[in-house]
Amino acid sequence: MHEFGLCEGIIDAVERRADGRRVAGVRVRVGTLHRVVEAALTQAFELVSAGTVADGAAIELVVVPVRAGCEACGHETESADPVAMCAGCGSTEVEMLTGDELLLESIRLAADLSASTERLD
Q: What are 20-71's pLDDT values in tens digits?
């Protein structure tokens, strides 16, 4: 299950950016080619984030499909799988434009509730 390895990298990036502040949620953009299973990623994130600033945080997955462009005719195609041949002209001169991303898109910091629950007499 490669989702554990991905989550370890995600947590490293989250901890650097959070700078010790509690994290309530993260959004990750992942290309289809990584073949991430959302349920497995969620479970791995829960386990890997335990004891970190992201302990208990939710993870949101944004899946990016493969998009390829033909260098011969300019046709672009979108797919869930790698594209080896242009659907427009049959050329093998295709370039992957998207689908291999792995990006920590955003983190949502937890609100500091101590200020709102403190009584001022």
A: 999 999 999 999 999 999 999 999 999 999 999 999 999 999 999 999 999 9
Exposure pattern of 21-42 as b/e (b: 16+ CB <10 Å)? eebeebebbbbbbbebeeeebb
Residue 31: name the closest of 92, 93, 97 by CA.
Answer: 97
Domains, the chain: 3-16+23-110 (3.30.2320.80)
Q: Which two tokens mark 40?
A: 């497995």
Kindly report the pTM of this predicted structure. 0.79
